[in-house]
Amino acid sequence: MSHGAGDFGAGEAQLTDKERKEGGLVELPVVLVGIVPIYNLPDVHQELRLSGEVLAGIFLGDLKVWNAPQIAKLNPGMDLPNLPIQVVNRPAGKGSNYVFTEFLSKASSKFRAEVGTTPSPKWPVGTAAERSSDMAEKVKSSTGSIGYVEYQYAVKNSIPQAAVLNPAGKFVKASDRSIAAACEATEAPRWNSFSASLTNAPGADSFPITSFTWIYLRSAPSDSARAIALGNLLDWVYSDGQQFAVQEGYAELPAALLASVRKRAKDLQ
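RE: above sequence
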């Protein structure tokens, strides 16, 4: 849409300064999403704990077995199997890639240098799953596997998800509450950082792999009739649409932020 095609876009990747300036684009948060590590270890019945550094090691291919010392250290008393780790990742152009690689890049300087924050990472190991549903199915059917999906796919498919170490030193599992906590910790008290990164947000209750899903808009719509139609869509998104998002497994925007975004959306119409 930066080339003049389409009225809006959506995704989890932050706009670059160049896209904002040269494309005349702005991003507005729509809902909150959590990207969760999912795994298949049928004989492990305790909650698995993972850190960003360990996840980076796994997805770089440096950690190859489930009972590696780095994983065992985070899970004292857990009988981890001497089983190869089967990595499942996503191909190029995925919003979940952007959020996951941003988190891993913040946690690991090696990951940041070798892969970086991108929707199209060049994964050094693993097999690809095209859609989130494919990822869920591959992990669910492959013993020893690990992948990452939007929170709702883990819940709907009853796939174990790991608790992830956040900056406050607490292992937190994704939930509506912990995803919202990451947003609140980042946005309060001003509630106007619409393009903020929510990964590794402060706060004991914050799930660290959280992101906005944004809608990308032109800052100066040219066609008045289409602008009115888009305005009607935004009115719905920031009212009844929030509840539909919750039904689909996303977390709705906190009330204070929603009010600020709604005002900004009106200003763009």
